[in-house]
Amino acid sequence: MQRRQLILAIAFVSLILLPGVVRLDAAREQTPARNTLALAAPTPAPTSPGVAGPFVGEPVVPASFDGDVSKLPRPSSSGAKREMPRPRRRTIAPTAQPPTAPIARDPVLQSSEGTGRMPAPIQSFNGLDFLNWGSGWPPDPNGDVGPNHYIQAVNTSVAIFDKTGAQLAAFTFDSLFAAASFPCNAYNQGDPIALYDAISGRWIVTDFAWANSNGPFYECIAVSKTADPVAGGWWLYALDAGGTETPGVYWLNDYPKFGAWADGIYMSASMFTSSNVFQRSRVWAFNRDDMINGIPMRNVWFDVAGYYPNLLPTNLRGALPPTGAPNFFASIDEPNVLHLWKFHVDWANQANSTFTGPTNVTVANFVMPCYAASVFQCVPEKDGESVDGLGDRLMMQLQYRNIGGVESLWVNHTVAASSAVGAPTGVRWYEIRDPNGAPSVYQQGTFQPDANYRWMGSLAVDKYGNMALGYSVSSASMYPAIRYAGRLCDDPLGTLNQGETTLFQGTGAQSGGYSRWGDYSAMTVDPVDDITFWYTNEYYSATGANWQTRIGSFRLHNPPAPPPGPYLYYFPWVAKPGALSCN
Predict the structure, then answer these.
(1) pLDDT, tens digit, for every residue of 216-230?
(2) CA–CA separation, 438 vs 434, rounded Å?
(3) Tell me: the pLDDT tens digits for 386-414?
(4) How many CB atoms lie within 10 A of CB 36?
(5) Is 18 within a domain?
(6) CA–CA separation, 43 and 466 (whole Å)
(7) What's the CATH code of the domain at 406?
(8) Domain that holds residue 293
(9) Among candidates 323, 317, 201, which has minimal Cα distance to 259?
(10) In 10 A of CB 33, how many CB atoms?
């Protein structure tokens, strides 16, 4: 009897203290429940000077796709060969003070490999390519991972894979949005995003659309109706994103970026005239409950004056932020300023929403390569033309983590020792702590271990604080490759101490007069274990214009295997204090 009571007591304690201890076969079938946490609104602060708003948008009525996306028709051809829309690159902002000469040495340069070694990929498989699914250059590859699927988006098309790399569906944005409002029903133009929202357990895929180069300009937002993105159906929203104060005049919502947050889905875009003149940045908050339930989508937006293009919204992973925390937006300015804004949305009274900032965080000095990206031909390739280094902006995502109550933002961009063409590029990355208090740089580094060019980075952080950074690598003597490096949470600050590993080595270069090499790539973390990284980027198998993409996964920390079943409960391995969390 005493033994039985002891067993029951142990089981009871395990249920209370170890909520993650369940039958593994059942856990694999679960998907994250929709968050129902009510966020208490802080006292609204005055909106910052130079910020117009809040503007309460008309709720966007969705259309419905109720079929199986695997049955959507394939494109009859790769479409018209063209460069995807992109306004001209930025010029140095009048407020910036770029160095007049090359910096002698990057103050946070990591010029050699770390002492560790990144693990080999767990999965590595091909994604979409130009020959079958593309219609232009560059592909802008990105993607995200959910409990059972990986969704990749490239310009004009989407693919859904299982986690072994089997393609379950592939389709164009036009075919998915065929039932949506004009112009999303037939004129999808690119800049795609694929996002998994772990709070609701739903998928979001987006791109922009217009039928006329003078506008109007729209953002097309598809939200899965269930956790099944293949057969579960989608809600289709067509957001008028380019309206102005002048009737009949429209701005293009260029370079749209999305992030999931506790109280909604957030978006940013750089607003350009049809003649490619930058006007301002624009930021939105969308109501998550509306989006996942297929009711008219409430939205609030602000315009940001001054030269702050390519703002990035925060993307939440793991534990929720403190109740009422705002979403953060960021941009970068040469030679040493990271700008942060706070977007607080009040869904009870949308007119009380605020967008405040910027708070300017001083970072280590850097130089934007390629004359601040005004020169496209910057990164050399073997046997091909040089391609765009895209060194004028932060690269997606702006990653948020709350680990043991320590809040941090993580982000990267491309830098060089000189703005002149011919200076090899590296990837600068940051960890910013206390973003809602007194934000400051906790650590930073520039990864440039040799004379090769590294650019087009994306990073993510797992639940222990381990960070992985993926990017493209090229030089005049090598074809572009996809590689990744990283750091364990207890590695020396400012270093990617886990040395570089190749996800895929290309065997060709981009040529044919196309200088742009993808506008972004994407590193994300699996929500099931919160430690498996997934990365996608582009490469070429043969010199020419037929880009390919690759998708891979890996871990920086491998959890111990559970004891053999069958079993009702088990006690997982518990690390010694400080072994896995470094905050």
Answers:
(1) 999 999 999 999 999
(2) 6
(3) 998 889 999 999 999 999 999 999 999 99
(4) 7
(5) no
(6) 35
(7) 2.120.10.10
(8) 50-76+107-555
(9) 317
(10) 9
